[in-house]
Amino acid sequence: MKVTQHLANAKKTIISLEILPPTKGKSIESIYHHLSPLMEFNPSFVNVTYHRAEQMYKKRADGNFERVEIRKRPGTVGICAAIMNKYKVEAIPHLICGGFSKEETENALIDLHFLGLENVLALRGDAAANEKFFTPHPNGHRYAEDLVKQIIDLNNGRYMEEDIMDGVKTDFCIGVAGYPEKHFEAPNLDTDIYYLKRKIDMGADYVTTQMFFNNEHYYNYVKRCKEHNVNVPILPGLKPLTNKRQLTMIPSIFNVEVPYDLYNEMMKTKNEADSDKVGTEWLLAQCRDLLKNNVPVLHFYTLGKPQIVYNVLKELF
Ligand code: FAD
Questions:
Q1: Ligand 1 center to residue 109 CA distance, Å?
Q2: How many domains does the chain have?
Q3: Is the C-beta atom of 90 inside 6 A of ligand 1?
Q4: Environment class of residue 164 by beta-carbon count within 10 Å: exposed (0-12), middle (13-18) or buried (19+)?
Q5: Nearest CA residue ID for atom 22, ligand 1
Q6: What is the distance between the alpha carbons of residues 160 and 162, in angstroms, rounded to a whole number?
Q7: Are 7 and 297 in contact (CB under 8 A)?
Q8: Sign of the alpha-carbon dihedral angle for 274, 277, 282, 283
Q9: What pLDDT is recorded for position 57?
Q10: Main-chain dihedrals φ then ψ at residue 84, nearest 5 degrees
Q11: Which of 195, 230, 255 for a ligand 1 pocket mutation test, highest count of atoms within 8 Å of Cβ?
Q12: Is 8 exposed, middle or buried (0-12, 13-18, 19+ CB in 10 A)?
């Protein structure tokens, strides 16, 4: 079922989860181990992230180095199919522009359609590890809005090869990313929302936000989006913060702030159990407040410590 249908049918706030594929060489059992306990809370859908290839230098037998492309976390589409099969729950693959030509994107979408996947999260992706700025594939998309357009084209039966007449129409529900504290490249929040609106005008159905640790950022974002006539559901992304290292790592990777009180409480912790407790209580308070404000979805980034998300959900429901 499409995310939009889940939202339309919901009588109260629904739950969704986001996971990462395991690193190459690990079994899919690690995903099941991660997800199975959380199924108790009937998530409406599970997002699976996509990780582009990284360029690395490998030493050859002759002592010289060669540049190779390695995907450390392949398997997004396979995991989506496995999740749908095992749990009978909707799985949403993330699809990125980075590293993909338009033709590869079209072929990926055809695979998803044949597998019966009805939802995708359309993203630009970040710069590759060896790049300073995001560089699109020479025959690919520069911005997520261009990817949204390609998906809409396919939903209308328009394929890249113009001689395909009466092409099968896909029917993807399209999510896009939004940033309550603005995307790091955007000069200001209004400009970022202006480009978000273009993704919606292009045909995206809903927005999933970057994580935030202060709900005021989310409420302000929803308000500012409405002022810009962004009228689709905006799903809040939530992540437990569970150790001191993340206090500086999360802001530097995701460009979000860690509130002073959370920082202070975490700094006082002496061991893992203490840190988990601080992270759990903060997330729980965020969720209670969001529920009070009737958000459509609580979307949890479960990477790392699914047990914390489990404990929070057990308290809430
Ligand atoms: P865009 O919407 O293209 O925006 C990128 C920047 O360009 C923004 O600053 C925007 O304001 C600006 N912009 C947009 N359109 C235009 C335009 N037409 N002209 C000029 N400027 C423009 N990354 C992954 O690699 N894999 C994942 O699975 C993944 N999942 C994510 C899930 C969520 C919910 C979120 C919030 C992010 C995720 N990311 C993922 C990270 C994301 O790919 C990066 O944040 C990336 O830098 C931007 O992607 P975007 O889709 O928001 O890009």
A1: 19
A2: 1
A3: no
A4: exposed
A5: 195
A6: 6
A7: yes
A8: positive
A9: 82
A10: -65, -40
A11: 195
A12: exposed
Atom of ligand 1 nearest to the CA of 143: 3
Could you tell me the two tokens for 35?
């997800």
Q: Which atom of ligand 1 is nearest to the CA of 142?
A: 3
CA of 86 to the centre of ligand 1 (A): 31
pTM (whole model) above 0.90:
yes
- The range of the structural domain enclosing residue 162 comes to 3-316
Measured from the CB, is residue 204 less than 6 Å from ligand 1? no
16 lines ligand 1 (CB under 6 A): no
Instruction: Using only the alpha carbons of the chain, give its radius of gyration.
Output: 20
Cα of 103 vs centre of ligand 1, distance in Å, is 20
Can you state the angle between helices 102-114 and 76-87, rounded to 10 degrees?
10
- What distance in angstroms lies between residue 185's CA and the mean position of ligand 1's atoms? 9
Amino acid 303: pLDDT:
82
Give the containing element (helix H, strand E) for 4.
helix 3-9
Q: Is 237 in the pocket of ligand 1 (CB under 6 A)?
A: yes
- Write the pLDDT tens digit of every residue in 29-84: 999 999 999 999 999 999 999 999 887 788 888 888 888 888 899 999 999 999 99
Question: pLDDT for 121-176, tens place per residue?
Answer: 999 999 998 889 999 999 999 999 999 999 999 999 999 998 998 999 999 999 99
Helix (H, G, I), strand (E, B) or coil at 194: helix
Is the beta carbon of 210 within 6 A of some atom in ligand 1? yes
Write the CATH number for 67.
3.20.20.220
Percentage of the chain modeled with pLDDT above 90: 91
- Rounded mean pLDDT of the chain? 96
pLDDT at 205 over 90: yes
